[in-house]
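Lab notebook, design round three. We kept the backbone fixed and only want residue identities now. Task for the bench partner: fill in a sequence for the structure below.
Input structure tokens:
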């Protein structure tokens, strides 16, 4: 049997948080159901954050209430203990925390320094173990910060070790502004290998410089078997200047399919979900492979 790689679609949260068109909770549920129909089983469905700070995430509780039932891992982003309690109260089984690898990005994103951000995460991680809630900690700006520039590999390794020691189930290396190259991806993962268990590490790439899929490939070659991606390439961070869309789910799915990996995703379904994202947001061109996929569908090759 083909080796499996998990694609976690972050379109309904990371993909929508910086869009000019704010979707209703019902529209966000509609997009999530389209992803489920395409075979996606891991989806970031929203964020329990201040609606004043991120208006696009208002009503995440309504989104969670409208989720389809089944064998899915639906996750929600949380900024702190209060967000954690909201996610818990709404029955969310997996929560995501963010700790930037750079001091300035932490200040801009969550109004606290790196050491304090780790402490806040530690508090949530301790409680999550008691509650049986799975935790993902995003190490943002893992390769480069929009304010400080290149990040020292040693700093990322140090933070990853601290977060796993604090109880994180998974650490997600996030190339927040899409600045990494395949060589830099391999270098960081080589440094992490042995310091932490790479089986519990996943990657989150943006396509700012057109290297999103190449970076996924480099991470696959380094042993990573789980990736974030966003339907249609939606994305962008309101707190990180220069951050454009995430690597497109359909692009990652096409590459992994041709490499012989199993993702469980249906390309026809992904096209339908990408078209829906374009219809709802008015700002979704689809991934680099979208025209090729549609052509294969027209020729009955998929």
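Proposed sequence:
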């Amino acid at each position: 049997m083909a080796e499996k790689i998990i694609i976690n679609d972050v379109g309904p949260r990371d993909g929508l948080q910086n869009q000019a068109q704010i979707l209703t909770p019902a529209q966000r549920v509609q997009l999530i159901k389209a992803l489920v129909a395409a075979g996606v089983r891991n989806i970031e469905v929203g964020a329990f954050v201040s609606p004043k700070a991120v208006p696009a995430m208002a009503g995440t509780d309504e989104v969670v209430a409208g989720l389809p039932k089944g064998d899915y891992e639906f996750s929600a982003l949380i900024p702190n203990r209060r967000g954690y309690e909201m996610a818990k109260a709404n029955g969310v089984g997996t929560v995501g925390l963010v700790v930037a690898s750079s001091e300035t990005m932490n200040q801009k994103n969550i109004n606290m320094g790196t050491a304090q951000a780790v402490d806040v995460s530690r508090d949530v991680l301790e409680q999550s173990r008691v509650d049986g809630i799975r935790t993902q900690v995003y190490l943002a700006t893992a390769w480069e910060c929009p304010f400080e520039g290149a990040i020292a590999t040693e700093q990322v390794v140090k933070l990853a070790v601290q977060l796993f020691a604090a109880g994180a189930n998974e650490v997600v290396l996030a190339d927040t502004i899409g600045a990494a190259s395949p060589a830099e991806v391999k270098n960081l993962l080589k440094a992490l290998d042995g310091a932490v268990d790479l089986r519990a590490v996943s990657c989150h790439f943006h396509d700012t410089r057109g290297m999103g899929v190449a970076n996924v490939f480099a991470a696959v070659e380094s042993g990573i078997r789980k990736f974030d991606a966003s339907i249609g390439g939606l994305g962008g961070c309101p707190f990180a200047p220069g951050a454009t869309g995430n690597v497109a789910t359909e692009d990652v799915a096409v590459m992994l399919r041709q490499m012989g990996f199993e993702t469980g995703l249906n390309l026809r379904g992904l096209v339908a979900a990408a078209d829906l994202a374009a219809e709802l947001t008015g700002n979704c061109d689809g991934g680099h492979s979208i025209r090729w996929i549609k052509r294969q569908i027209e020729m009955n090759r998929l």
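Keep this in mind before ordering anything: The two ends are 21 Å apart (CA to CA).
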